[in-house]
Design a protein that fits this description.
By secondary structure, the protein is mostly helical. It is built from seven helices and no strands. The longest helix has 38 residues.
């Protein structure tokens, strides 16, 4: 077995693992869309643990760089991350309500700015910008009018959709990579000399 074939099989196996990871993400995304409440609490807990771990890592980094001008700034930022992580982990429902309100306000302000900007500028993409602004405004109003009940499903829905689309992207990347590796490996096997064929040098070809 020649070296290109071995490397091709390794690459194909790596792309296969990517496709498998994408499949797991798609399954998790579909389950999250069915159970949006569980997905919301899961996303909040993950967010809290990320803040907590990031704060601890930042605190260790600040301690290692003590004596510098940025020591106290690093300590303050790490302490804020740790405190925020503890609050999110202890109160995931309240955090989901606050983030849902923040998301609704972002949708509202973004939709208003797009609507006003498209009317004022009147560029070539005016229709598409108007549609985006109207959609953002409508989505923000729907989330805001149903708050705080909307906090039970909005963040979980967004989290599950992110998992779903990331998984689909990994599946496409993995399957496409395996297909390309198999095509390249097949062409290399076709052009590679067999053990029965003598390998001639340039001097032998000239003779």
């Amino acid at each position: 077995m020649n070296e290109p074939t071995v490397e091709g099989r390794k690459l194909s196996r790596s792309f296969g693992w990517l496709a498998l990871l994408g499949t797991l993400l798609v399954i998790a995304g579909v389950i999250g869309l069915v159970y949006t409440g569980v997905a919301t609490l899961t996303s909040m807990l993950l967010f809290g643990w990320l803040l907590l771990v990031g704060g601890l890592v930042g605190l260790l980094h600040a301690i290692e760089s003590r004596g510098t001008n940025y020591f106290w700034l690093g300590v303050v930022v790490a302490a804020l991350n740790i405190a925020a992580g503890v609050v999110v982990i202890k109160h995931p429902e309240g955090t989901a309500e606050a983030l849902t309100m923040f998301a609704a306000l972002l949708f509202l302000t973004g939709g208003v700015f797009r609507l006003v900007g498209s009317v004022v500028v009147r560029g070539p993409q005016m229709g598409w910008t108007l549609l985006q602004g109207a959609f953002g405004l409508l989505l923000g109003l729907l989330v805001l009018f149903d708050w705080p009940h909307s906090s039970l499903y909005v963040l979980g829905c967004f989290f599950s959709l992110a998992l779903l689309f990331d998984g689909l992207g990994l599946i496409a990347f993995g399957l496409g990579g395996r297909r390309i590796v198999s095509m390249v490996s097949g062409r290399l096997d076709e052009t590679a000399p067999t053990s029965d064929e003598p390998i001639t040098s340039l001097e032998d070809e000239r003779k």
